[in-house]
Design a protein that fits this description.
With about 450 residues, the chain is an alpha/beta fold. Among the domains are: about 260 residues, 3-Layer(aba) Sandwich (Rossmann fold); about 45 residues. Helix content is about 40%, strand content about 15%. The chain has 14 helices and 16 strands. A hairpin with a 2-residue loop joins strand 12 and strand 13. The structure holds adenosine monophosphate and zinc ion. Adenosine monophosphate binds next to helix 1 and strand 10.
């Protein structure tokens, strides 16, 4: 890692939805943050609202690493649930063939948005035995029961902590009702399905279990897979705010009732991407997929810029004017970075980096981090050729939007370096004629030399 003069010792802090406080993020063990992120339901192309959640999680993992901590991220792929089954059966194809198209598309989209890959992408259909054994454990512990139709339900009254994430006291609302759907709201709180008995509409989809043929509920997928790959207690769990209830509440109930241990230390949720004030969602039909925007000529990096340039806990309204602004802003950064050079950064650049670090560590304040980046751009433009390339690169470890193609200097060959050294001597002796002659000789060899206050910079001619 590059060494900078101004040492900034801010600690990474994040807002924990469980405690509703901003807290230090410290690894439970081994200087490694274990992170579980609820991944896509692969029944359709993900829309850019979904990608707001995934870019938020990408920023989170990048800031963890920026702070010198290791990360182990698990993102599940929900490839069996109410929606995927409905989609496959309507299309008349096997569930695995149906979901494969959208899994592949999802990974291609992540690349376009420069989202770092997670360490593990477990698919629900590859973990049915783990889910069955977790359900068995819950039945043994007396917190789950089989209903007449062969489904298994979690008894929310049997888990005293139910509601602690959503901060709702369900005691007064519990009616003993059951909810078989994967998604429901607080008004429908009740016992939720861990295992769903096979029914006609499931068609060929189903697995044998101690309770007969059926399939797992959505919530049990995440408890089983997160604990398999991250342990019974781990550091961080994230998702969009719509996941908080019932999905994450149910994950806590399932895991903690089974293990008797705390499930997750810190929960983080990002606010929604909206369109005209409404959540962007497939069901409302007000969505753009990433592909829609790429087809309109926007780049992944411009879209990423828009998605990350709002605080993750604040709603973000999608507008094409924001993409236009992103294009202009990134062009400004590119033009500046092109002329930045390597070397020990000046103090004003280190100050920008310190501001940047403070911002990202303050509950991922990316808008403030961008302000520090643009401060660096402004000051670099006033100090042509300043050795600030390393600072830009360090900032981009978090942002992932800067294009370094033009700034990357090709290795200067020894004979060119010898001419550059001679030229530096000539300039020091104010021998301008010799300096110009050497510049021409260097150009004839295919290299361009530029002068600035900071000295000579050399790049290969195109
Ligand atoms: P789904 O595929 O519906 O399970 O959603 C995948 C992820 O995207 C989850 O973390 C959701 O909370 C998140 N999500 C869905 N819609 C939006 C939205 N409009 N803005 C931000 N995140 C969203
Ligand atoms: Zn989940």
């Amino acid at each position: 890692m590059r060494h900078f003069g101004i040492i900034c010792v801010t600690m990474m802090k994040v807002f924990n939805s469980l405690t509703r406080r901003v807290e230090d993020l410290e690894p439970i063990s081994d200087n490694e943050i274990r992170l579980y992120t609820c991944g896509p339901t692969v029944y359709n192309f993900a829309h850019i609202g979904n990608f707001r959640a995934y870019t938020f999680e990408d920023i989170l993992r990048r800031v963890v690493q920026f702070n010198g901590m290791k990360i182990r991220q698990v993102m599940n792929l929900t490839d069996v649930d109410d929606k995927t089954i409905r989609g496959a059966n309507a299309a008349g194809v096997k569930l695995t063939d149906y979901t494969k198209t959208y899994k592949d598309a999802f990974f291609a989209d992540l690349k376009k948005l420069n989202i770092q890959p997670a360490e593990v992408y477990p698919a629900a259909t590859d973990h049915i035995p783990e889910m069955i054994s977790l359900v068995e454990k819950l039945v043994e512990k007396g917190v789950a029961y089989k209903s007449d139709d062969g489904s298994v339900y979690f008894n929310v009254r049997a888990f005293p902590g139910y509601g602690k994430l959503a901060h709702i006291d369900f005691d007064h609302q519990q009616t003993g009702a059951r909810c078989a759907a994967d998604e429901y709201d607080k008004e429908n709180v009740g016992d939720f399905a861990l295992w769903k008995a096979w029914e006609e509409s499931d068609g060929p989809v189903g697995w044998d279990s101690p309770w007969g043929r059926g399939r797992p509920g959505w919530h049990i997928e995440c408890s089983a897979m997160s604990m398999k790959y991250l342990g019974e207690t781990f550091d961080l769990h994230t998702g969009g705010i719509d996941n908080l209830f019932p999905h994450h509440e149910n994950e806590i109930a399932q895991a903690e009732a089974a293990t008797g241990k705390p499930f997750v230390k810190t929960w983080m949720h990002c606010a929604h991407l909206r369109v005209n004030g409404e959540k962007m969602s497939k069901s409302l039909g007000n969505f753009f997929t990433l592909r829609d925007l790429l087809d309109k000529g926007w780049t992944g990096r411009e879209i990423r810029y828009v998605l990350i340039n709002a605080h993750y806990r604040q709603g973000l309204n999608f507008a094409f004017s924001a993409l236009e602004d992103a294009r202009k802003a990134l062009a400004r950064v590119d033009a500046c970075v092109e002329h930045a050079t390597d070397g020990t950064p000046p103090e004003w650049a280190e100050k920008c980096l310190a501001d940047f670090t403070e911002a990202v560590n303050d509950d991922l304040n990316i808008p403030r981090a961008f302000a520090a980046l643009f401060d660096l751009v402004r000051q670099t433009n006033a100090n042509n050729g300043a050795p600030v390339l390393g600072v830009f690169k360090r900032m981009d470890e978090v942002l992932g939007v800067i294009f370094f193609g033009k700034a990357e200097k090709a290795e200067v060959p020894a004979e060119i370096q010898a001419l550059l050294d001679k030229r530096a001597e000539a300039r020091a002796a104010k021998n301008w004629a010799e300096s110009d002659r050497l510049r021409d000789e260097i150009a004839a060899a295919g290299w361009q030399v530029k002068d600035s206050k900071a000295g000579q910079t050399c790049s290969k001619l195109a």
